[in-house]
Structure formats: C-alpha cells, structure tokens
Write a structure and sequence with these properties.
Region (Disordered): 248-279
Pfam families: PEP-utilisers_N (PF05524), PEP-utilizers (PF00391), PEP-utilizers_C (PF02896), PTS-HPr (PF00381), PTS_EIIA_2 (PF00359)
CATH topology of the largest domain: TIM Barrel
CATH architecture of the largest domain: Alpha-Beta Barrel
CATH class of the largest domain: Alpha Beta
Radius of gyration: 31 Å
Shape: globular
CATH superfamily of the largest domain: Phosphoenolpyruvate-binding domains
Number of domains: 4
Structural class: alpha/beta
Subcellular location: Cytoplasm
Helix content: 40-55%
Number of strands: 27
Distance between the termini: 52 Å
Protein name: Multiphosphoryl transfer protein
Family: Belongs to the PEP-utilizing enzyme family.
Strand content: 15-25%
C-alpha cells in the first residue's frame, strides 16, 4: 500500500491563497516523480467540481479521474500551514494533503485523516509541530492501528466531500468468502455511490467480487466501508446491516465438512472400517464427503492448454468476441445454477450465483478491456488477468478464502473455452463405475458428474470446505481430497477402496481387504436402506393424524427418485425445464413423452403438473416480451400463457394425452381471480374432448394475496389448492425474496403469511377440497408443525427432504401442532413465531 514518507512533508509553510496551497502540495508530488506537472492543474480544476475541504482544518486536494494518466506513481504530500489559509469562505486549513492515486491505495490515508478529524487538539498539534515524524506517524496509512485498540461500533461518520464511512465486524462464520462477498457486491451495485472496503491496509472496490475476495477478510475481521455519492448514507446503512446480519451465512453450518469418523451404527453393533488404519499402501487424505466407494480408478488428465496468440489483429473484433463470451458464459452459469438447485438445493446452487458475480465484476472486466485496447487478444488478456487475480487469492492466509482461487479459475476456464472456441469434452469419462482421480476438480466439473457412474472422488489438492467438497456431499458421492500428488501416479483401471468418512484410499486391495471393504459398504448400505425403508411408512402423528408428503421435481429422472425417497405423490412438477435454455419451444410430442415417463415412473401415485410458469425471473428467449419495469408484477404465469394460445394449447394437449398413463392433475400458476381460473378450466375441458382424455382434477397455485382473500369463492370452482409460499410471502410482504438485503425479512413464518394459509385452508375444507403447500416453507422443520397445525393436507418438498420430514411428522402430536399454530397466528412478526417454536421444541 502507499506510504507517506517524511520527504513528502513540508512544515512551517505559508500560502497566499487556496490556489497557492494546492500548487505547493502538487509541487511536492512533481518533485518526487509521482505526477506530471499537468496533474497540478487537474487538482485546481477539481475544486470547481467537488469540495475537498474535509473539515477541522484539513483539506485533501486531488485531480479529476479522467486525468489519471498524468499520474506516474501513487503518492501523497502534506503541506503544513501553521497560520492557515482560507480554503472556502469560513474554512481555514492548516494541513493540506495532496493525493495522486492511480487506483485506491490512497484510501488508507483518508481513513487516518478521519481518525484525527474529530480531535481538534490533535489537528492543531500537527498544524504547529516542528517534528515531521510526528505528522508521518499520525497520517501514514502504512502504520496500522494499535492491535489493542477496541473495535469501534458501526457508527457512520462524514467522509470526504459528502461521503460517509463506518467500521463493522464481519460476523459470518467463514469471513468474506465467495457467497457472502457476492451478496455484499450485489447490494453495493444497487447504489450510485462509489463503495470502497478496506481491511488491514488493503482497499477493494465494493462492487467488485474479485477485489473483495483479495482483502482476505476472515471471520471476526473488521472492515471499513466508505460510500461517496448521492446515496452514500443509505448505501452505508444497508451494507452495515447486511454485514452485521451475517451476509446469508446462517446456514453454512449445515454444509460443513464431516468429521473423519465411521458411520453411525446402532449401539452395541460393531461395523468394520473399509480398511484397517495400519493397512500397507493406505493413502491418507482429508475426509470431504462420507461413504465407501469400491471401483476402478480413473485419472482425469487436464487438457493441455493451447498456445494463445497475444497480439490482436483487430481490437474491435476482439472486444466484441469478449463481450459475446461473457454473455454466453453467464447463460451457462444461470442454467448450471438452476440444475444444481434442482439436484442439490438452494445453498449449493449459490456457488454458481457467486460464479456469475465474477462475470459482472467491473474491475475484472475493465482490466481485460484495457488490455484488449492495448492490442492483446481477448483470450490472452482474459487468461492473464484471471491468473493474476487467482494467484493473489491463492496467496491469502485463510485456506477457505485461498480456495476461492479455484472458483475464479473455473469461471476463467469457462470463458476461455468460449473465446478459443474449444468444445467441452463432457463425455470423456467412461460409461462404467469409477473412482475419479484428479489434481483438483472445479465446482463446474463436480456439478456435472453422474453419481450413478462416479462412485467416489479422489483429489491431490483441495480442502473439506471447498465448493467441490460441498457439491460432492450434496450429490452423495464419497470424496477424499488433499491426498497429495502421489495419487496422480495411480494407474487407471486399478480397483481401489475409498472411505470418504475417514479420508483414506487403498489402491489394489487383496481379496481379504476387498471383502472387508465390501462388508463395510454393505453394512452402510443396510443402514441407509433402513432409513429409506422407514421413509415408505406413512407420515402419521403420534395421535393419529395423517399428512401426505409429496415431492417437488423439475426433471424426468426425479420422478423415480421421489418414489425411492418415500414420496407419496409429486405435489409440484415445474414444467419450465422443458422450455428453458433452448431457442424454440418444445413440441407437443416431446412434452407428452416427458409427462408420460414421469407418470409411469410414479406407478399410479398422483402427479400434479403446473403449467408453464414463465416470465418474471424466468424469461424465455423465443418469446418476445416487452420490457417491464417490474416483471414480477407483469406478464407471467397464467397471464403469459393466455397471451400465447398455441403454446398453451400444445402443453395442455400433451398433459391430457399423458393422463391416460397415470393419475395426473393440472395446476395453474399465478391465478388472481375466479374469471382467470374459469377461462383456464374451460380450455382444459375443450382440449380434453379433442384428445379424448380422461376426466382430470384442475387446481391452482395460491401465491398472490388476491387468491388467498378470494379462497372462499375459488374453492367452489377448483379441485384443490397448492400454496406457493415463496411468492405468497414476497407479494404479501412486498419484499423481493431474492433481494440480498431483504431475504431475511421475507420470512414465510410472518403471521400475515400464516393467516393467508389459514384462510385458504378453512375456505377449501368448507367446500370439501384439499390444500397442499409446495413452497420452501414446507421443507422448513420449524414451519412444518405450524402448517400441520393449520390443517394443511399435503406438504410437498425437494426429494432429499422427504425422509426427514416424514420422520419429523411421525414424532409430533397433532394436538400440539394445532396449539402452536393458534399461538403463531397471534404473533406480531416472524421472529416471534420462530421464538415460539423454539420454546415448543
């Protein structure tokens, strides 16, 4: 970082006026070789644009941003004026701090200045001292604060010309790693003000993901946030609140690495390890994902990097290629985010939301475009810029933060592949069971693995809390990481035993060891089978109340998995998977085959098919939609389907044809009135006659307040209700559930939302109709008793949540749930409801 040396301090100076003082401060920088003389004139012009009087006798003249090319090196100067000079009417300055900054290295001295700003005695002492070292000691940003100083509260103070600054402690359990940093950056980008974050002498652009990660902020670290611009105070308060609330890290504990321990077994029953601890040839690594894998090893060799031409022929063409590659990579990551969310869950999918943030990083993108402007090819400029920043991250002391270098390189490889037009080799793995061996795996590599073929993962590098390890656990693939480069010498095809619970691998076991491992694997499989077998039991409370537990799915294979997990129905089939990430809509035949396959996989269990819920946050590229200032309140759901009659009819025909192969029901999204439902149901009946389909139940999603309020009238018309608590919460509370700052507040346990649920259930039961809940609230263990107490008939959750939810229901009493629900309806906020459930636990 920049340092203020004694050679750049002038004491006992005099100045005729402000202009003379600025020229003297600038002259020190010219003499020191920091700036060209023209930058002094820029410092003069800055005075007509921005106030540089900091307050309490201190001014900070600096040049205009567009004149930064006149800066040779970042530097600082201090001009001491014991008798002062009038800066502006009524403003007397004694310390003039000249700043020439190529980037953000000067922020540290500004922080030092604000430290002394409110201490008039210190300012006057510095204004009159004859000791240059005293000034340097007080203002040099390279001199950190005393370690013993207590952490100040997050108090907003004036900073720069109209800007603000505050310090706040990072409370998240893992510091500012990728996911919390991405939330911070997303928030910062919503404001027009310039946002800077400083930590231990380093300063970052608060709107730059990579810049934020390079700070290396660990849990408990104190950061200084400054905001300068028209909405500085609002920005600062928003960011402080987000940091103090943990930046979404409250769920991280659930994703922590497993301890290196054997699987849990019934008391008194000894389960053998896969291999003895003293086994010759045993390789020890780090336990990353539990389970035992026995399969041939397969070495995943890195593709040899092609030579990349450095010098461009046409910079404009390179710039266009770069922009196109960024857009394509963004679309790929959006799809990967949706896929991982379906397969593994929302928390795991956030990994790729953080990756997406890299592509929107202004510092990163600007650096590449700058290099392209200097004559480099887009591919070369991108690769070099990514590697420079990845090396910075890899050098951080905190292993978790250093591990984010792998994420950045993952994003870098994705864009580079597009720039050099190299096809991905996704099918280079064999079509039989393997234990995959690699130096390391990127999150993208891991997310694309097929758990039916990749039975285990072994890497030379990596840690138990890496994104790769998190994804391996979510995919239920046993993994050992950080086992050392010797594993890269293991021969492909050799059978090995991998124990992800203990972090060990035994290559080429003899017959006895292999039998021991298979016995241990069988024992673990039996225990898992017992858990799954219990999942097939109905969810009946201890006092005899039955609740149906169904699955939310969004792909054909998930129907079979829902049955295997103990699902009693599919309460929500999101049909968007057939329509997204393509350039034209699916044909009727393609849809029919998908719906039929799922109905047959369910073996007669109900399948509720929600018609296309596009629009809002789910646009379709082949549907021309006018720009909407608020797409969540525009053409989406059933409204959009009505505007596309051919597409809507095609989907209904496919569903009604498939209904001959199983118990299929139709559900309309975003119904807001009786008239909308009647229009949709009439179309279903018309098409049913056309295809000679069976009679079919038709219901609606209750996800807007109007349908909940009108539930008594709608209940006379519909066959069932399914409450989508995600949208119902955001529309009831007027809070975007995807907004980083509001995500905590948009809580489905808010009594207003619960009252909507209660009103809907009572209206439905009054007409003999059933009600399900298919939003995230159904999978919340805290919410389940309340929903059951409100007499919800069905809870529909992600496939992995089914066994645990059924077990929870079997352990509770219906009468207790009803009492809890009654008290929850009387609460005044979600926090009080959650506190109520804690007391009841």
């Amino acid at each position: 970082m920049v340092s203020l040396g004694p050679e750049n301090v002038r004491i006992a100076a005099n100045a005729r006026d402000k202009a003379d003082a600025i020229r003297q401060a600038g002259g020190i920088l010219v003499e020191g070789g920091y700036i060209q003389p023209g930058y002094v004139e820029s410092m003069m012009r800055r005075e007509t644009v921005t106030a540089t009087y900091l307050g309490n006798g201190i001014a900070i003249p600096h040049g205009l941003p567009q004149d930064r090319e006149l800066i040779l090196h970042t530097g600082l100067s201090v001009l001491q004026l014991p008798y002062g000079v009038e800066w502006n009417p009524g403003e007397i300055v004694h310390l003039v701090v000249g700043i020439a900054a190529r980037s953000d290295e000067h922020i540290g001295v500004l922080q030092k200045l604000t430290d002394v700003l409110d201490d008039e005695a210190t300012v006057m002492r510095l204004a009159r001292t004859g000791d240059i070292d005293e000034i340097v000691a007080a203002l040099d940003p390279a001199r950190s604060r005393e370690a013993s100083a207590p952490t100040p509260p997050a108090t907003v103070v004036p900073f720069l010309g109209g800007g603000m600054r505050a310090e706040v402690e990072v409370t998240g359990g893992t510091g500012l790693h990728a996911r919390p940093a991405s939330i911070f950056v997303t928030l910062a980008k919503q404001f027009n003000s310039d946002i800077r974050v400083s930590h231990q002498g380093k300063t970052a652009n608060g709107k730059s993901m990579v810049s934020m990660l390079r700070l290396g902020v660990e849990s408990g670290g104190v950061i200084s946030i400054s905001a300068d611009g028209p909405d500085a105070e609002k920005a600062l308060h928003t960011l402080i609140d987000a940091v103090e609330s943990g930046l979404g890290e409250e769920d991280e504990a659930a994703h922590a690495a497993p301890k290196a321990a054997p699987d849990v077994q019934p008391a008194g029953q000894a389960i053998p390890h896969a291999t003895p601890d003293d086994e010759p040839g045993l390789i020890r690594g780090v336990a990353a994902a539990p389970g035992i894998a026995i399969a041939p090893l397969h070495q995943l060799r890195k593709q040899v990097e092609e030579d990349i031409e450095r010098h461009a022929i046409n910079s404009d063409a390179e710039r266009a290629d770069f922009d196109h590659a960024i857009d394509r990579a963004g679309a790929e990551l959006d799809e990967l985010h949706r896929t991982v969310e379906r397969r593994a869950g929302e928390m795991e999918a956030r990994i790729f939301a953080a990756h997406r943030e890299f592509l929107d990083d202004p510092d990163l993108i600007d650096a590449v475009r700058h290099r392209i402007g200097l004559g480099e090819t887009a591919a070369y400029a991108w690769r070099e810029t990514i590697e420079e920043r990845a090396e910075d991250l890899a050098g951080l002391s905190d292993p978790l933060l250093a591990g984010r270098a792998n994420d950045l390189r993952d994003v870098g490889a994705r864009v580079l592949r597009l720039l050099i037009r190299r096809n991905e080799q996704e099918s280079n793995l064999p079509d039989h069971e393997i234990i995959l061996v690699a130096e390391d795996l990127t999150p993208s590599d891991t997310a694309s693995l097929d758990p039916d073929l990749v039975k285990g993962i072994l890497t030379a590098l990596g840690g138990p809390n890496s994104h790769t390890a998190i994804l391996a656990r979510s995919l239920d693939i046993p993994a050992v990481v950080g086992a050392g480069h010797e594993v890269l010498d293991l021969a492909t095809g050799v059978t090995a035993v991998l124990d992800g619970s203990r972090g060990t691998v035994l290559p080429d076991p003899d017959a006895a060891r292999l039998e021991t491992a298979r016995s241990a694997q069988h024992g673990a499989g039996q225990r898992r089978a017992e858990v799954l077998q219990a999942a097939y039991r109905p969810a009946i409370t201890i006092d005899g109340h039955r609740v149906e537990v169904a699955a939310n799915i969004g792909a054909v294979p998930e129907a079979g998995r829902a049955v295997q997990a103990g699902g009693e129905a599919v309460g929500l089939l999101r049909t968007e998977f057939l329509f997204q990430d393509r350039t034209d809509p699916p044909s009727e035949e393609e849809q029919y085959e998908a719906y039929r396959a799922m109905a047959e996989a369910l073996g007669g269990l109900p399948l509720i098919v929600r018609t296309l819920d596009a629009g809002g946050d789910k646009p379709l590229p082949y549907i021309a939609m006018a720009h909407e200032d608020n797409p969540f309140l525009g053409q989406r759901g059933i409204r959009l389907s009505f505007t596309m009659p051919d597409l809507f009819r095609s989907q209904l025909r496919a569903i009604l044809r498939a209904a001959s192969h199983g118990e299929i029901k139709i559900m309309f999204p975003m119904i807001t009135s009786v008239a909308e439902f009647r229009r949709g149901r009439a179309l279903v009946e018309e098409i049913r006659r056309e295809v000679d389909g069976p009679e079919i139940d038709v219901g609606i999603m209750v996800e807007v307040p109007s349908s909940a309020v009108m539930a008594d009238l709608l209940a006379r018309e519909v066959d069932f209700f399914s409450i989508g608590t995600n949208d119902l919460t955001q529309y009831t509370l007027a809070m975007d559930r995807g907004h980083p700052a509001l995500a905590r507040e948009a809580d489905g346990l808010h009594p207003a939302v619960l009252r909507m649920v209660d009103q809907t259930v009572r209206a439905a039961h009054g007409e003999g109709k059933w009600v399900g809940v298919c939003g995230n609230l159904a999978a919340d263990p805290v919410a389940a008793p309340i929903l059951i107490g409100l007499d919800v008939d069905e809870l529909s959750v992600g496939v992995p949540n089914i066994p645990a939810l059924k077990a929870q229901i079997r352990s509770m009493a219906y009468e207790d749930a009803k009492d809890l629900a009654r008290r929850a309806l009387a609460c005044d906020g979600a926090a009080e409801v959650r506190a109520l459930t804690s007391e009841a636990a």
